Amino acid sequence: MSTSLSNILARMPKKYDEFRSCFVGKGELFFHLPAKGRRWINDIDKELIDFYRLVKSNPDDVKKSHKICSTISFKKMSDHLKSAFVTRYCGTGLLKNPGENVFCFLDPPNFSDTEDHKKLAEVVKETEHKVLIRYRDSELIRSLYLPEDGFYIQEENGELLITNYYVEDDDEVVKLF
After folding, report:
1. Taking the model in full, what pTM does it have?
2. Mind listing the domains of the chain with CATH numbers?
């Protein structure tokens, strides 16, 4: 994905009590945010989640050979995972789980089945949480996240940033540190 991290940060809610990454993958946003507060990461990829769990529970025993280690420092990864809740569910589970002032970031895989996109959109429409989704631009995705359903869309470099909350275009990036 090519949407800049600074653009994602600018579209995040200014305040939230819990951060959830429903399809964490390499954790671009998760590992960028401060390692504080309630945080929950999830991915369906067993190998990836097993690796994150191993780093969380036994950081000294993990070799730095995994592909994700090249994108961030191992110490930073370990520090971020210490207090995070790490799960391997379908990504929609984090959207359905209750919580107060929760912000969910979704960077879903490129589903090959249109029905998967439709199912995800239905769950997003029903969630009580603030959601920001990064998606490759397509007519299908635009048809699933309509303004009349409460969605706001920003385009950048062939990708869409979709929120279920209004983001002021004040060019102010969220100050995290």
Report:
1. 0.86
2. 5-163 (3.40.50.150)
